[in-house]
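Slide 14.
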Amino acid sequence: MQSLKSQFLLNPAITYLNFGSFGACPKPIFEDYIKWQYLLESEPVQFIAFDGQTYLQQSRAALASYIHCDADDVVLVTNPSYAVNIITKSFPLQPDDEILTTDLEYGACDKTWNYYCKKAGAIYRKHAIKLPITSAEELVNDFFKSVNVKTKLIFISHITSSTALILPVAEICARAKQMGIMTFVDGAHAPGQVSLNLDTLQADIYTGACHKWMMTPKGCSFLYVKKEYQHLFDPLIVSWGYDSAMPSHSRFLDYHQGQGTRDFSAMLTIPKAIAFMHDNHWTAVAAQCNKLVMDNALRFCTLLHAQPLSPVHPDFIGQLYSIAINSPEPEKLQRQLFEKYKIEIPVMRHGDKVFIRYSINAFNSQHDLDVLYNALEEIIREGILIRL
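Slide 15: predicted structure.
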């Protein structure tokens, strides 16, 4: 993988173990991004008002082929939080309705659902996932004990953020479909990290980031909605796409793409990102990254006196790994790791727990994880920011 390290723009002085937060864009994809920005600035009117719609269609078509769905069921958005807001704002909630989720979800999404559920007098119900996870079957069976007649939608992460766990979303979506319950999967970390086939997944709604593991520039994500539900969701920003003077064949696309003046250059790099992954045999790269993640997992758990959150197996672990860490001041620990040791890694609060999460991509090596291990050893000896 080290032959690919030179393809990234990352500062070589930093041990970069936080790909999961915002991704990192390889040079060929970033150069494609600059190409689109130059084209925009060379003729802004033609780019934004006319040609841009064709460019967006081409990008959506490439993405749809990659994630296996109809291109007309996908709109490009800036980030998954934007997509979640589209859905939550328009979801037809009535008083006492329930949205069922887990207690492992991304904080920004929790806030969004809490906001709109409170406005509607509905309930955002968090099912507590038993950690450590022992099996997908047990997790699914236990999760569905929280379903009741008031459950209108299941909202669940494909890969959790702070705990970095791959959840059995295919099994959850399949069972929910049998029960007539809509599903919405937050797949922010999934595209480019795990195989994604929306034709077979059976999720009714899905959002994913392209600027994470697909490595596009920042501001490139997508929202997928099955055709039978697209009419439910109003545009988050009402603009030219609403009641369009020149409507396309899809109101869904008009509503959510006709957003006025914006620089959507990042969204146009999706074909280049897919080509980059193909040319560099990214399935094999991801498998090597996954092996490096898992080879080091128990080593870090032992160092931090932590129990693994799941079996160390590809069913639950991808290119991210989280370990519970006993830190009274996680924010200070994160800053010390960066400022003193030049390690970029998140140390995150989640409820009453704290997790440190390393991410591995093509530019990482065993040396990077050794740097982290040695830094944590030294901090543990100081006994201030980490307690055993």
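Speaker note: The CA atoms of residues 55 and 145 lie 46 Å apart.
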